[in-house]
Write a structure and sequence with these properties.
mainly alpha; Arc Repressor Mutant, subunit A; three-stranded antiparallel beta sheet; 159 residues
C-alpha cells in the first residue's frame, strides 16, 4: 500500500467517524427525549413537576441536604432551587431547618407527608423506569452506563 492509499483510508475513516458521531448524537438525543417524555408523564400524575420530584427524590433517598447544594446534585440552576423548595414547602412535602453544626446553612428536609408520598410513589417510579429500560438486559445496561460515563467524562474534559 502506498502513501496515497494510506491517506485515502485515513480520510475515509475520519469521515466515517464524523458521520457516526453525528448519528450517535441524533440517536442519543432522540432516545433521551423519548425517555424524558415518559418519565415526565408519570411524574405529572403525582401533582409534581419533574424538578420538584427530582429534589424530593434526592432528599428522600439521601437525607437532609444543604439547600445551596441541591442544584448541582439534581442538575438544575441554583437560582431555581429556592423557588422549587418554596413550592415543595407550600405542598408540605419539605421544610427548611438550620444545620445543627453550622447555623449559616439551611437544610431541606422531607416532612412526614413527603415521606408518606414517596413511600407510596417511589416504588412505582422505579418500576416505571424498569419498564422504560426493559429493551436492554442487565448486561447491556451495565455496558451502556460505563460507555455513557466514559463519554460524559471525555466531554467534560474538553474544556
Amino acid at each position: 500500500m502506498n502513501l496515497r492509499n494510506i491517506k485515502g483510508v485515513i480520510r475515509l475513516t475520519e469521515e466515517r467517524d464524523e458521520e457516526m458521531s453525528l448519528k450517535l448524537f441524533v440517536v442519543l438525543t432522540r432516545a433521551l427525549d423519548a425517555i424524558q417524555k415518559r418519565v415526565i408523564e408519570d411524574i405529572k400524575h403525582l401533582g409534581l413537576n419533574p424538578t420538584e420530584f427530582a429534589v424530593l427524590e434526592l432528599i428522600y433517598n439521601k437525607g437532609d441536604q444543604p439547600i445551596q447544594k441541591i442544584g448541582e446534585k439534581v442538575l438544575i440552576a441554583s437560582s431555581s432551587i429556592t423557588y422549587v423548595v418554596d413550592q415543595l414547602e407550600k405542598k408540605e412535602l419539605l421544610e427548611r431547618k438550620l444545620h445543627p453544626s453550622d447555623r449559616r446553612v439551611k437544610l431541606a428536609t422531607i416532612t412526614q407527608k413527603g415521606k408518606t408520598l414517596m413511600d407510596e410513589v417511589f416504588p412505582k417510579h422505579k418500576k416505571g423506569l424498569q419498564e422504560i429500560f426493559a429493551g436492554l438486559d442487565v448486561k447491556e445496561k451495565e455496558q451502556l452506563i460505563d460507555q455513557l460515563k466514559k463519554l460524559g467524562l471525555h466531554a467534560q474534559n474538553l474544556n
